[in-house]
Amino acid sequence: MKILALIPARMGSGRFPGKPMALILGKPMIGHVYERVALSPLLDLVAVATCDREIYDYIESIGGVAVMTGDQHERASDRCAEALLKLEQANNVTYDVVVMVQGDEPMTHPDMIAEALQPLLDDSAVQVVNLLGKIQDTAEFEDRNCIKVVCDLNSNALYFSREPIPTRCKINDIPIGKQVCIIPFRRDYLLEYTSLAPTPLEIAESVDMMRILEHGMKVRMAPTKHNTQAVDTLKDLKNVEVIMRNEK
């Protein structure tokens, strides 16, 4: 099985412009993500998918692989689909699985790649998996930048929201999870995804996975044992820098 990891990144983030190149411990955030993902022994290739020359040039400067994509994509998954086809054509190869790792996940641990891939390896019916993290406290639960997930009894996502779901009450008594943007797709399913029309709730929540749910398909959620913090704001960046300074 050939597995490609794609890291979508763009400078034009509405909440934090220039985010991929923001420094953490003296290194651009996208560099941390790239190097950590590349530590996974399960991957045949790791590449950054971007529409920005600044990001492309930086990744190449550290010996990495980058792919220039169009600047029209609203969703990271659509950007990854374009990059997949370009890499396959350039390298004369067909990948079986594409692992999308968002460029704002600098605390990614290489073992998280394995955690996300396992449901695909165990069950041929599973087409896409999304890693599921634990919400640490009420502040994170209330934070609109934290995408909450509720699941059915078979670990499939029921809904993703920036709002506090499933309920504001009894937060300590209900298993509440958050989306961690490490998302393996089977190759053909990613291409099917990008052929689907964007959906109202996908647009409202600004969450790629809602397109799948609204079209009546399933997203399998896989829990991670690793604590992680995505970077959506300058405050997040500073918090992550403190955590990473004390990491082994």
Poorly predicted runs of 5 or more residues: none
- What order do the SSEs take from the amino end to the carboxyl end, as H and E? EEEHEHEHEHEHEEEEHHHEH
CATH domain class name: Alpha Beta
Shape descriptor reads globular
Overall residue-averaged pLDDT value: 93
Q: Fill in the CATH topology.
A: Spore Coat Polysaccharide Biosynthesis Protein SpsA, Chain A
What class, by secondary structure content? alpha/beta
State the helicity in percent bands: 25-40%
- What's the total helix number? 9
| End-to-end separation | 31 Å
Quote the beta fraction.
15-25%
Superfamily at the CATH H level? Spore Coat Polysaccharide Biosynthesis Protein SpsA, Chain A
**Main sheet strand line-up:** 5-4-1-6-11
Radius of gyration: 17 Å
**Strand element count:** 12
Main sheet specs: 5 strands, mixed
CATH architecture: Alpha-Beta Complex
How many structural domains does the protein architecture include?
Answer: 1
Walkthrough of the structure:
This protein is α/β, with parallel strands linked by helices and 248 residues long. The protein has one domain (3-245): Spore Coat Polysaccharide Biosynthesis Protein SpsA, Chain A. Helix content is 34%, strand content 21%. The chain is built from nine helices and twelve strands. The chain has helices spanning 29-37, 53-61, 76-91, 110-122, 138-142, 187-195, 200-205, 209-214, 234-245, and strands at residues 3-9, 23-24, 27-28, 45-50, 66-68, 97-101, 129-134, 148-151, 157-161, 177-180, 182-186, 220-223. The strands form three sheets. The chain has a five-stranded mixed β-sheet with strand order 5-4-1-6-11, with helices on both faces. The protein is globular and about 50 Å long. The mean pLDDT is 93.
